[in-house]
Amino acid sequence: MYESWVGHALIAIISLVLMVYTLTTGAMLRGRIKRSRGNIFKLHKRDGIYFGTFMLGSFIYGLLIKLQHGESILSSVHGKLGLILILIIVLQIIPGLVLKNRARYRGLHKIVGYSLAPILVIDASWGLYNGVVAGTKSSLVLLHSISGGLAALALVWIFLEILYAADKSLARARIASYFTAFLVTAGCWIAGGYNYLTAYGFRVKPVILAGPHPWAHEIVMEAKEHIFVFLPIIVFALSITLHIFDRDAFQGETKSRRALTMVAYLALFMVLLMFLMGAVISNAGKTGTEV
User: Fold this and answer.
1) Whole-model pTM?
2) Which residues are in coiled coils (predicted)?
C-alpha cells in the first residue's frame, strides 16, 4: 500500500499521458490517424523509451515500497498487473531497438502496444483504489473506478480519431463511443448508483460527516452527484451524433468535427473530474475511520 495516494495518482497520470502520446505517434505511423508534422518514427521511438523507462522506475519504486512493508509485490492484483506491464514494455522496446527488419514484428508490435492501454488503465485504477479505499474495500467501488478509467481511455480514443481524422476514423470513433456509453451506463450509473444507495449513504457518509473532512461530502459529493446525472446524457448524445453522422460530412466539415471534439473533451473532463472527486471522497472516508 502506498504511503500517499496522491503520489500514486501522479505516477499513474504521468504514465497514462506518456502512453497516450506513444500510442498516438504509433497510430500515425500506421496511418490509422492523420500524421502531424515532424519525424513521427523518431518521436514514436523516443516516446516509447521515455514511457518504458518511467514505467520501469515506477515498478521499482513500488517494489521498494512493498519491501519496506514486508509484502510481496506479487501478493496483489495490482502488483501482478504491474509485472505484466513491464514484460510487455520490454517486449515492445527491445526488439524495436535491436531488430533491423521490423516488418515481421510490426503486427505483433501493434497488437501488444494497443493491449498496453487497457491494462495500464486497469492497473492504475486498481492501485489508486488500494491506496485510497484501504480497509473499506468494495467490489462495486472497484468496478466503478475501472469503468471510469476505461471510459476516459475510450474518450481519448474518440478525441484522437476526430482530431486526426482519416478514412476509417468515423467507424472507429463510433465503436469507441458505444464502448464509452456502455461503460458510463454500467460502471458509473448502475454500479456507482447502486453503491451510493446501498453502502455510501449508510456507512461512508456518516463517517465523513463526523470526521475531519466533512466538506468531502457536503461539497465534493454534492458536485459529483450533479455530474453523475449529466455525464451519461452527454456521452449518449456524442454516441448518437457519431452514429448518424455521414462519413463524407465527417471528413469535410471541420466545424462539425470541432464541435464533436469539444463534446468529447467535455465528457473526458467530467469523467476525470469524477475520478478525482471519488478519490477525495474515499480518502475522506478512510481518514474518518482512523480518527
Assistant:
1) 0.83
2) none
